[in-house]
Design brief:
The protein is 21% helix and 33% strand. The protein is an alpha+beta fold. The structure holds fe (ii) ion. The site of fe (ii) ion (FE2) has 5 residues, from strand 9 and strand 13.
Length: 326
């Protein structure tokens, strides 16, 4: 196993291209509770913590991914990783001063992955200068060194994409082969910051953001149920990262998973494994064909009949205080 330091520290930011910024403003602020700032030039900054943004939405011709920002340790790590990528016949562009300014980072280099997604490697995120204020009474997001959450990409070539991202420095956490073909990868102690799902079309499948408080998820779920066609996967708990979550349709044509209590893994002792069901219970997936839903339901019935349960492991989160339980 390839243990030792990981070259990528975290999923730093995700950029979204959108035809309708107003819909994103409403979705991010009123529904998800993010702080939304107008950054000018048709760009919204969506804040989840003290960084200038964790997501940005920029006006464009289409709805989809603009870029994925992966943070590395410093200038020498950025150079080293960029050289490694170039040695595998992928051209790497040095970000201009304007690029760095718009991303609020000290330096960035970018390249396209085999599906054509723009990936930006950066170091030195600049502070915003003003404190993060959520929109509404949200108790905050779980970010920090764990990064913004996770991003899952659909790809028509999971073998090629997986090989590319593993060589970039991600490590395989676990995987599922049937009825859906998914690979989950980590780059810090978050169970997965990145995943790939075999599919006909290359696009974002979903973005996951994690809240510090269970009750915030419950209240967002209440709001979601009042909005027609908002919920695309009901409340449930994942088998592998133990996340309690549900999925909403975003204005970007992909889903946003809102979660709580995702599991952290031990980087040295973790052994990758194959999982048979994506969820322990719930997560009725409206986006999946009926045959695949039925197969997952059968696997969940097996887990239920064997009494398979997962512990809650968020003792270092302000939203879960073990000392209050006696
Ligand atoms: Fe997810």
């Amino acid at each position: 196993m390839n243990k030792g330091p990981l070259p990528i520290k975290q999923l730093g930011y995700v950029g979204i291209e959108a035809t309708d910024l107003a819909r994103w403003q409403t979705f991010a602020a009123d529904f998800l509770g993010m702080q939304v700032l107008d950054a000018g030039s048709g760009t919204l900054h969506l804040r989840m913590d003290d960084r200038p943004f964790r997501l940005f939405v920029t006006r464009g011709e289409r709805d989809g991914l603009a870029c994925i920002g992966l943070e590395v340790e410093g200038a020498s790590s950025l150079d080293k990783l960029s050289e490694q990528i170039e040695s595998r016949q992928t051209s790497v562009q040095r970000g201009s001063q304007q690029d760095c300014l718009s991303r609020r980072v000290a330096a960035l280099n970018w390249f396209k992955d085999p599906d054509g997604n723009r990936i930006e490697l950066f170091h030195g995120p600049m502070p915003e200068g003003t404190a993060f204020v959520p929109n509404g009474a949200i108790g905050g997001f779980r970010t920090g060194d764990l990064g913004l959450g996770h991003v899952v990409l659909q790809t028509p070539q999971i073998g090629v994409m997986s090989d590319f991202y593993l060589k970039l420095g991600f490590r395989l956490t676990d995987f599922m082969e049937s009825p859906i073909d998914v690979q989950f990868m980590h780059t810090n102690t978050r169970h997965h910051s990145f995943a790939l799902l075999q599919s006909a079309e290359a696009k974002v499948h979903h973005l996951m953001i994690e809240y510090l408080h269970l009750d915030d998820i419950g209240r967002i779920y209440d709001r979601a149920q009042a909005i027609p066609d908002r919920i695309v996967s009901t409340l449930g708990r994942h088998t592998n990262d133990h996340m309690l979550s549900f999925y909403s349709q975003s204005p970007g044509g992909f889903m946003v998973e809102t979660g709580w209590a995702g599991r952290l893994i031990d980087l040295e002792s973790w052994q990758q494994e194959r999982i048979s069901s994506p969820s322990l219970w719930g997560h009725e997936r409206k986006w999946l064909p009926e045959a695949a839903r039925k197969a997952i339901r059968a696997e969940m019935d097996l887990l239920a009949s064997s009494g398979t349960r997962a512990p809650v492991e968020v003792t270092n989160s302000p939203g879960f205080n073990l000392s209050r339980i006696s």
